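Milestone M4 deliverable, item 7.
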Amino acid sequence: MPLATVLIRYWDRHGANVASHDTQRFALKLWNEFWGEATVADLSIPRQREFRTWLKARDYKNSYVDRILSVGRAALNLAWKWGEITSPPFIEHVSDRSDAKEAYRLKKSEMRRFLSAVQEWPHLYTFSMLMLNTLGRPEAVLDLAPAQVDLEYRSINLNPKGRKQTKKYRPTVPITDTLMPFVFDRKVVRFVTWRDKPIRSVKKTFARAVKNAGLSADITPYSLRHTMAAELRGRGVPAWEVEGLLGHRRPGVTESYAVFSPDYLSAGRAAIDGYFADLGMELPRVSANCVPVACQPKPFTIPRTEVM
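Output delivered:
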């Protein structure tokens, strides 16, 4: 059977309907680009290793190469389950993570500069505050809508109703005092919007804000999550509580009711508010509505207190 047929059917039956559809689509594109008119029988180990070398030549890290391979593996397994191939060929894993770049964690001086600069883009500013206060993944924050926010119990369910949980578990997290002004508005479709419409990515604008602040290009949206996780551990928040905020630990059935307790993940919530208090910055709630001209960055100057 043509490999391209297997990949297309996988996309139609599964890939297009999952939360990670963008990643799935790009991975399938790479598979098609390399394998072309190959058949399933052509997936020999030597040829697979040529595929891996081709991916590495594009500067993809081993972890990302492994993710790309996993999409093809899933497509072949699905074709086998549907009885379209007699058996799925073995697709190797890439277990080596030695090329992984260490997560960038911002110092407080860097965070002040970043938060000062990012306010020029209201949607990115809101995104950043949500990231820092929920420790959520970027895609979860971009999905966040008022229906997921319980103001009475001061909690946010990062997994919208109807969405199936994946390996990247989206937990329910507490609303910090710092975050409350940013989630109080109930008249928006989502909290992070551009021209009143939801957006899928902030990578380009984020990189631009980082550059305007004079910070390292290694800082990405995930750096905000890593920074806060490290900050919470440094402030004595128990490991299990940090894991709960990050979605690295799934709650049991009984534990799921804990979100209604006033002290739900209270140590983490207090530590986040304490971190912002230590920053000593004014963090105004800005309108998410903006037009291109209004969103153009103004010249950014480093606060005098940050000059060493």
